[in-house]
Every structure is written in C-alpha cells, then in structure tokens.
Amino acid sequence: MADTLDINQALLDALLELESAVANVKADPKPDLMALFNRLDELTAALPEDTPRDLLHYLHKKSFQKARLYLQGADPEAGSCAH
C-alpha cells in the first residue's frame, strides 16, 4: 500500500510540476515538457493493477487536470458550468 501512496504522490507532484511548466512555457529557458510527459508515462506504467479505473482513464487519455483533481480528492467531473 505504501508503494501505491508513493506513486500517487509522485504522480501528483509531476502533474503539479507540469501545470507550472505549462504556465511558464514562454520563460527562458523553456521548461522541458517532454521530460515531464515521459515521467508521467513512467509513473502511470508503475501503478498497480488495483488502481482505480477513473484515475487510469484520466492518465491514459492525458486528461492531466482531471487526474490531478482526482488525486487531490476533488471531483474531476464537476465543471464550472451549471448544465
């Protein structure tokens, strides 16, 4: 179980780092987004078989904001639109 918690924390850290890098994409030097995407792919591949399907879905579909929300305990499917 500790391994899953460690991987989940590493995933959350990488997702937060990606969001920060995207926000600073015009910085000099430019952030290495490919390294972050590769790290996320490695962490996703290391997840155990009993990983929740929703989280796996978000990660495989590259819905990184939803994956971050899921890992933070928020509802990834709750939008700001009332419809």
Describe the structure.
This protein is mainly α. The protein has one domain. 61% of the residues lie in helices and 0% in strands. It has four helices and no strands. The longest helix is centred in the N-terminal third of the chain and has 22 residues. It starts with a helix and ends in a 12-residue tail after the last helix. The mean pLDDT is 90.
Describe the structure in brief.
This protein has one domain (2-21, 32-71). The protein contains 4 helices and no strands. It has helices spanning 2-23, 33-45, 53-60, 64-71.
Mean pLDDT score: 90
Domains counted in the coordinates: how many? 1
Instruction: Estimate what percentage of residues fall within beta strands.
Output: under 5%
Strands, total number: 0
Distance between the termini: 38 Å
Number of helices: 4
Quaternary status: single chain
**Helix/strand-derived class?**
mainly alpha
Overall shape:
globular
Give the key terms:
83 residues, mainly alpha, 0% strand, globular
Detail the topology: elements first, then pairings:
Layout: H1 2-23, H2 33-45, H3 53-60, H4 64-71
Helix pairs in contact: 1-2, 1-4, 3-4
